[in-house]
Design brief:
single chain, alpha+beta, 4-stranded antiparallel sheet, 12 strands, 29% helix
Amino acid sequence: MKLINHIPSLFIISAFSTMILSMACGRGGGGQSSDRNLDATIEDSVEEAAPRIVTLVTSAVRNGDKARFASAVAYPLARPYPLKDITDSAAMVDYYPVLVDDSLKHVIERAALHRWSDNGFRGWTLDNGEYVWLDDSIYSVNYTSVAEQALRSMLAREEIESLAQPMRQGWVPAFCLYGIDNGYLYRVDMSDLPVVTDSVSAEERVDTAPGDDILVQPDAAASNDSSLYRLAIYRRDDNLHGEPWITMTGHLVIEGSEGNRIYHFNDTLGDTAQYAYDYVGEDNQPEIIIIPAGKEEIRHKVRRAYWRDYLSTPR
């Protein structure tokens, strides 16, 4: 059936909805006034018990104030790979309609005080970490909008399809690193099916659906993730559409109350690798550690990168 056949019905639904809203606002001598009073009550109660950052964010979202919201964010604000992180306030102003869609706006602007909780060193969160985390600023947004989900799915599919054919089936992108001192690319993919190992019971497993974000947010329980991970290392002159120089498989271990993520990899030759996703050294630069079989470890300074940025760019 063609879409045009539904147009009269859409007009009827719209008119009916308008009539219902008008009737609702008319009850009790002014629904809009009641809504404003409720908003004021919620804002006053939050302001009395919550830190200024909570009231600032709530007010900015309620008023659609992109610049004010952007000023309350700690940058870069991570987005689930292969989406790009939001690097500064100017980028946030542009990205705001994508990140703060109608669903997130409704949740934040209508959230009563009891839904915000103080989690000590991790700061304040809404609905037990389901949406945002704040301390002096917004440092994590767990919520992923419908637009972000669609874009992420498209980008992930394009990344996997760019790999050599034998490397595609059953994998989704996790993250990518660029070797600052050697120009290598270290890409990590995750199996789209969880694997239960002897050391991780089914009860301890962190279930991960295909395409889910592997970034463990601050609200995650300290547990082991039984998913299978793959590290593929490409040297500076390697064809990124071809087979990688080295391939290892491994697992993720989540350690401590802060949920630090440590990736461990190995291959059939006895080579191993390790990457602490959340660790930053004294020089503010993370490292990947490679230990060839029977040899001393080699440390390479790396930065987080985006695979697709290097597909057609010489390194």
